[in-house]
Every structure is written in structure tokens, then in C-alpha cells.
Amino acid sequence: MRPLLLSTLLAFSITPALAEEPSAESPNETARLSQQVQQLQSSLGQLQEQLAASEQERSTLEAQMSQQSAVPSAELDALQQQVKRLKHDNERLRQRLSEQSLEPKDNALLNTQQTWYALGALTVVLSLLLGMMLRSGGKATKNAWLN
């Protein structure tokens, strides 16, 4: 209970000291404060002017950006159309390639046929030459077989 009584007494003794008004300010301090207020008001005016200039510059830059962004969007649309066209062409070419790969290769077949024909012709020519060589080598008479 003693701490409560002590804190109450302390609170009542401080309260009248806080309730007293401060003494009147000196004239120099009042002049200094009024000068600071004027400086703050002038700096506020300057800051408002700078804000207005910044806002105007921002709106100008936004207008420029919107004009510049319109041009690339047109270019972007053209590029997108070109990409679509190229994709379509690629798909068409892939389809043609797959169709051609499914068809039988006539060129290879002709080459195989030509190879067999050339081998057959070579065989005939070699057999004729061999036959002529064997026949002419023995210069025997016609009736040699009869002896």
C-alpha cells in the first residue's frame, strides 16, 4: 500500500507543474519563427511548381510511350502473321515430304533393273567371246570329230 500512496502523491505533485503555461517567447524568437514559416511557405510553392512540371512531363512521356507502343504493336502483329504463315508452310512441306517418302522409289527400281540388264548383257558378251576363243584356238578340220 505504501508504493500506491507514494505514486499517487508523486502524480499530484507533477500535475500542477505540467499545467503551467510556458513563459512568453522573446521577440527575437518570434521573428525567427515567422521567418522560418515564410521560408517553408516559399519552399512549398516551389515544390508545388516542381510537382506540376513533373506531372506535365510525365503526361508528355506517357503520350510518347503510347504513340511508340502503337508502332511496335503493328509490327508485332505483322510478325505474328508471318510466323503463322511460316508455320503453315512448314506443315504443308512436312506433309508433302511424308507423302513422297511413302511412295515407292521408282528411281531405285530402275537402277536395279538397269543393273540386272547390264549384268545379263555382259554375260552374253563374255560367253560369245569365250566361245569364239575356244573355237578358233583348235584350227581343226570339219571332220575332226569323226576321227
Can you offer a commentary on this structure?
With 147 residues, the protein is mainly alpha-helical. Among the domains are: 31-70; 73-101. Helices cover 86% and strands 0% of the residues. The chain contains 3 helices and no strands. The protein has helices spanning 2-19, 27-102, 106-137. The termini are far apart. The mean pLDDT is 79. It comes from Atopomonas hussainii. Keywords: Membrane, Signal, Transmembrane, Transmembrane helix. Residues 61-71 have a biased composition (Polar residues). Residues 1-19 form the signal peptide. Residues 48-74 are annotated as: Disordered.
User: In percent, how much strand structure appears in the residues?
Assistant: under 5%
Mean pLDDT figure: 79
Annotation, overall tally of beta strands: 0
Number of helices: 3
Question: From the helix content, strand content and strand pairing, which structural class follows?
Answer: mainly alpha
Given as residue ranges, the uncertain stretches (5+ residues, pLDDT < 50) are none
* Form type: rod-shaped
Q: What summary fits the major beta sheet?
A: none
Cα separation of the termini: 168 Å
Q: SSE string, helix = H, strand = E?
A: HHH
Helix % is: over 70%
**CA radius of gyration:** 57 Å
Can you tag this structure with a few keywords?
single chain; signal; membrane; mainly alpha; 3 helices; 147 residues
